[in-house]
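[step 3/7] fold_predict: job queued, chain A
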Amino acid sequence: MTSAENRTAIFISHATPEDNAFVRWLGAKLTALGYEVWADLFALRGGSDWSRKLEDALRHRAIKMLLVCTPDGLEKQGVRNEIEIATAVGKSISDPEFIIPLRLSAYDAPFRIAHLQYIDFSHGWAAGFLELSDLLTSNTAIPRSSTGTALDEWLADQTDGAAKLIDRAESLISNWLRIKSIPQTLYYCEPPFGFDLQRFQMRDIEAYPLIPFKGGVLTFASPNDAGELRSGVPAKIVAEISLSKFQAEGWPDEGIEKYVASRHFSDLGNQAFDLYMHRLGMSAFVNQKGRNAWWTNIKLAPKTRVSFDWLYTKGSRKIMGQSGKRGVFWHYGLNAQVRDYPKPHIRLSPRLLFSENGLDIIGDPKKSHRLRRSFAASWRNARWRDMLLAYLWWTSGGMSEIALPVSSTESIVAALPPFSPVAKFGTQESGDAEIVDDDDPDIDYGAWYEDEDEGNEQ
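[step 4/7] structure written:
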């Protein structure tokens, strides 16, 4: 057999066709690093004596064999034969780690490779490749052509002129609002005998959150002194549970498992957010998933920038404007999803909406998509951040918290501004740049029709 000094190729063993996509991806990545890669997908063509060429490459050209490991693949006789040949090659060149198993999914290792440490690709190809590339590049005995520096040069080009890290702490603004307090008790209420159940379980944006359940509802609200859950809807409390216990254990007595309890909490919280926005006079745009994005129309929206002054940042942004070039109004909308994992929080998602009259959102998804690309393609992170802060400042009245009512006496209370983790390093731009984008000044002339700089033509 050929000595190790004359071997130049990394051989990829796999079961065709199940693993073809992975082998093509891996081969391209290794080639970009400058390695010579041999795999039947790349080397064999119609009419080839494929078995002879494959065996010759493994016996005489391979310096390492990457063994793609899946349960089905390792059952293939061809792969078993290649393992036997590779075991012999490893002994002949005194390389006990000649075979490198790549774990794409859980498998029972054949006897010949049972002792070998695999590289795990089952949790993501990128993660596995990082480990594999570190292993290969640390082994100077594996030839790497000068063309491999092309990747290094490309990476250097991409970072040329990029923001430089500075050794200083920097606050980062997330899209999470930390929930400070929640109601104490969850109730299961039922109507009196003979009352219309459909009416009893009907959700009403003017009322408090509820979830239809069995012959009644789950709610944080309890019947008032008149015995009504809401006007004209009598109710009685059948059972109750502390919310902390409900979240931790579910409600076994009512047949509610813990994961279902988590969904119920989110549902009630989302309804509470919707109720809060509705009471402010905001409008809801319902997306394809049935979620509300809350926005404000021309009658309610502030005509100028909204100035905000949170603890760690201040500035101003509009949350609605008009483009004379496009003949449309744009509206900043926000969807909120209440979650209790990993910690109770409200996750905020922005949405850019458009109207022709400032009142009615354009429903055509294709037209909205084109407008969104035209407006927002050049908007930088700082702009989106500041629009979020301006929106929250305006809807909360500049308060340090937002209370989402769930009954006449209780609310889900979230802290403002959004959760702000602190990074150990910062960048020159993020700490020192003006909050107004140079290429999109967001100039405020005090009139809708004059504000034509709110977006950039693409």
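[step 5/7] annotate
The longest strand covers residues 328-339.
The chain has two domains: 4-159, 177-450.
exit 0
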